[in-house]
Specification:
Radius of gyration: 24 Å
Number of helices: 11
Structural class: mainly alpha
Order of helices and strands: HHEHHEEHHHHHEEHEEEH
Strand content: 5-15%
Oligomer: single chain
Largest sheet: 3 strands, antiparallel
């Protein structure tokens, strides 16, 4: 039976949203790791789906990761295959360590057209709460009502994952500089500091105490900075401490310099 003219006339066209990453950059980072584990070059959708435990290439979670990873510049697609870009490979296999990866991830964060506009708007300013940002996306950036909350959530989660939110303020330059400074430190750390006399004996950085471990760092003023780890910690504790230091110590030191 054919549709009545009135039914055809009253049928509303499907509303289409402006382009936006439907998953966070951290999820895309995990996604390209999966693609890399399968070879990274012209990996079939079928292989990726099998690794993800999925069956259909039209599954929303799969399409969202494909679409967002393309926007961040991590993959190219064609012929039902995905291939890692040079950017993705440099992130996964950095020359100078994980802070190079973070710097590249921060650069990738600005690749999606929507994110480039939001970064320009909120750089060095407070990012609105998710509920408010979602309305801004709908009213000013053509993100449809059905997906505005997810679009806002993914932007905030991505910025937070990369350490770009400082008390809610989007600090792009500060995070990039921290990564660059750390990379420079890594390159120079094998050089003996000028303030250490050639006859001075440098003790092992980790000295066991009765109830834990002490890490000592000599300062240029002949004083010592100390970092203490209590006895009884597990390997997971050590990994957590390492990640926490990598993320928070540069911020602490920068704040400390402003107080001195």
């Amino acid at each position: 039976m054919s549709a009545k003219p009135s039914e055809v006339t009253n049928k509303k066209p499907r509303e289409k949203s402006a382009l936006y990453p439907a998953v966070s950059i951290s999820e895309c980072y995990d996604f390209i790791k999966q693609i890399d584990s399968l070879g990274g070059k012209a990996v079939s959708y079928a292989s990726i789906l099998n690794l993800m435990g999925l069956t259909s290439p039209t599954t929303k979670s799969f399409l969202n990761r494909i679409g967002a990873s393309k926007q961040f510049g991590f993959i190219t697609t064609g012929g039902s295959t995905a291939q890692l870009t040079d950017l993705a490979r440099r992130i996964l296999y950095p020359n100078t360590g994980e802070f190079e990866s973070k710097k590249l991830l921060i650069e990738a964060f600005s690749n999606p057209p929507l994110y480039a506009k939001l970064i320009e708007r909120f750089k060095d300013k407070a990012v609105p709460p998710q509920s408010q940002l979602s309305n801004i996306l709908m009213n000013e950036y053509r993100i449809i009502k059905q997906v505005k909350d997810n679009a806002a959530k993914c932007f905030i989660e991505s910025a937070d994952y990369l350490g770009l939110l400082n008390n809610g303020v989007l600090c792009m330059d500060e995070a990039t500089n921290q990564s660059q400074n750390y990379s420079s430190f890594q390159e120079d750390q094998t050089v003996q500091p000028d303030y250490v006399e050639s006859s001075q004996t440098i003790e092992s950085p980790t000295r066991q105490q009765e109830d834990g471990y002490l890490f000592e760092i000599p300062t240029m003023g002949k004083k010592t900075a100390r970092f203490y780890i209590p006895d009884g910690v597990t390997e997971k504790d050590i990994d957590y401490i390492k990640l926490y230091i990598e993320k928070m110590l540069p911020v602490f030191l920068e704040n400390l310099k402003t107080e001195l």
